[in-house]
Amino acid sequence: MESVFGRYKNLIVLVGVLFAQVLGLAVQVKRTTDTESSRLIRIWAVSAVTPFEKALVWVQTGTGNLWHNYFYLRGVRAENRELKQQIEQLRLAQIRLNEDAQQARRLQALFGFKEQFISKTMPAQVIGSGGSEQSRVIFIDKGESDGVRPDMAVITVQGIVGKVLKVFRASSQVLLIDDQSSGVGAILEKSRLQGIVRGTPAGEVVLEKIMTDEAVQAGEEVRTSGGDRIFPKGLPVGVVSRVSNGADLFLNIHVRPSANLNKLEEVLVVTKVEEKESVLSENGQVRAVDVLAQRLPSVPDKPPNGSEAAAPPNPGSSGVPAAAKPAAQKPNVGAPVQVTNPIASQPAAPARKSGGQAAGLKSATEQPPAPAPITVSGPDATAPKPKPPSPPPDTPPSAPAPDGPQ
Amino acid sequence: MGLSNMPITYTSGEQVEVFRFSIPVTVLVPVTALFLQAWLPRQFPFFAMFDLPLLVTIFFSISRRNPISGLLTGSAIGIFQDALTGLPIGVYGIAKTAVGYLASSLGVKLDVENAGARLLVTLVFYVVHEIVYFMVARGLVALSLQWSWPHELWAALANATVGVILFFALDRFKQRT
Predict the structure, then answer these.
(1) Does domain A113-277 have CATH number 1.10.10.10?
(2) Is the model more confident about B87 or about A3?
(3) Which member of A7, A52, A403, B111 has the lowest number of beta carbons within 10 Å of its beta carbon?
(4) Residues 6+ apart with CB under 8 A from A168
(5) For residues A168 and A149, what is the distance between their CA atoms, to the nearest angstrom?
(6) According to DSSP H, which parts of A8-71 are helical?
(7) Would you state the pLDDT for residue B78?
(8) A130 contacts B35? CB cut-off 8 A
(9) Torsion over CA: B133, B136, B141, B144 (sign)
(10) What is the nearest CA distance from B5 to chain A, expressed in angstroms?
């Protein structure tokens, strides 16, 4: 027996080592989380490598900063002038965008949308990679001690990068979106088609689960849909670079990532995402529903006393959601409605002053006019069908609403 | 020049030289290879096609000419390389264990001290490594890898070229037994 072992010693050790590793692999594949031993090995390996990487990146960054900030300053004045001009242009653009954003928030509040906001990010430096073509991961210099947790989103200003896969004490491993095991909920910006962005073994990024009968154009932007609960909605993912029919029912959509995944230096770890409903400020902002109601068919003056006089002054207090009433009772609610500030163009204001609606709008009318008109469009906004306001079929044309003005 | 001072270039198993390495070299060379493998692709993305830990495995295995030592070296380096990737630990480990064993077994029988032999051996072992890796990754971890002979052969040639240079650089750390 001893001679057999002595004769085949090398082979027996080889089989034993291979068997142990295959067993270890099987255990890891079976479990979704790391086993204690595999986690320990990862910690050892990362602890052995990342200090050198951090030191090298520190030296590299320091040298680069020294050169660019103190020695290589050619053309800085001209660049400064250009940047100042850009700032002025961007300020103008920002004013326009603020208006659009406020309008969007008003409409979101109207429909009770919940939004995800990136409320806290942490800058981190990329210090290394996984070093393998098959596993596209990077290491960043922030870890558990800095508040990084698994599954946090990692982004740049250009677009999303990936998610935190494993967290160590002073560093973290980030799975890039071009890795074949990654998956990001995504939406095409124009066509609003939703799919999943995945990496391929060749390191490309593709958008999956879009049916072949859909029309997707190259150049269309892809953004996060928020469906994966990791990336907040609306972050840039990339641009459609190539579309072809797949072997199955789905399109082959290749996406060029917005962030340059091969040249990452600094990234942002999204450490806190808040989900909240859009809320309008109480300081006199006009609710879109009120503005809509303002433009509805005119209602005759109510008698000064009687049952209507006892009606609740605010439409919302009747127990029916304010947003539901105009939609249910106004025949033209689906058509595009150009709604302007009630002060800027107030055609029927005198007729409404005595009603509840007038009371509801009082605070609005006391406010200064909004700078831009609010445009509320229905589903058929592309084909406007202007038609005179008409009463709902079950309501007499001149009868006031039973629960007060609309 | 006496017989004992002549460079050994023939393939007698009894007369092929066996080398050993100091503990700092045994530890630091693989760690440096792993570090460079993790750091260089960030600076130069094309560098991901090289496999420095594999080259170090082949070098140590061939030089020591001991199959058990070779497979254990390959196993340790491969497992540490796995630890830096997002994949389960063992994929590179199994592939490098096999290469370490084969390289040291070959080292017992052949002398691979000249550049041509080193180029050929590294090229062949790179392909062997990739085949084992491919089989393990597809069969055990269910990764969807694509095998491309042109890519693998180019990568093998590139690795073999780097390997020849690296082996000559590492030769100075050899100690005769």
Answers:
(1) no
(2) B87
(3) A7
(4) A42, A43, A46, A47, A50, A143, A144
(5) 9
(6) 9-30, 36-66
(7) 94
(8) no
(9) positive
(10) 31
Q: What are the residue boundaries of the structural domains of chain A, listed by start?
A: 113-277, 288-376
Under DSSP, is residue A337 helix (H, G, I), strand (E, B) or coil? strand
The pLDDT of residue A2 is: 61
User: For residue B176, is pLDDT > 80?
Assistant: no
Q: With beta carbons under 8 A apart, name residues in chain A contacting B135.
A: none
Distance CA A332, CA A376 (A): 12
Q: Are A18 and B98 in contact, with CB atoms under 8 Å apart?
A: yes
d(CA A267, CA A265): 7
What stretch of H or E contains A350? helix A349-352
Tens digit of each residue's pLDDT (9 = 90 or more) over A179-228: 988 999 999 988 888 999 999 888 899 998 888 888 888 899 999 988 88
What is the Cα–Cα distance from B99 to B95, expressed in whole angstroms?
A: 6
Q: Do A131 and B143 touch (CB under 8 A)?
A: no
pLDDT given for residue A233 in this prediction: 87
Q: How distant is the Cα of A268 from the closest Cα of chain B, in angstroms?
A: 17
Q: Which residue has the higher pLDDT, A286 or B172?
A: B172
pLDDT band at residue A34, thresholds of 50, 70 and 90?
low
Architecture per CATH, domain B18-172, reads as Orthogonal Bundle (1.10)
Assess contact for B60 and B21: CB atoms under 8 A: yes
Nearest CA in chain A to B133: A134
Statement: the pTM of the whole predicted model exceeds 0.90:
no
How far apart are the C-alpha atoms of A109 and A99, rounded to whole Å?
15
Helical pair B52-64 and B115-139, crossing angle rounded to 10 deg: 120
Residues in chain B closer than 8 A to A173 (CB atoms) = 86
Q: Which residues of A91-107 are buried (b: 16+ CB within 10 A; e: fewer)?
A: eeeeeeeeeeebbebbb
Question: Which of A175, A202, A263 lies closest to B86 in CB terms?
Answer: A175
**Structure tokens of A281?**
């400020």
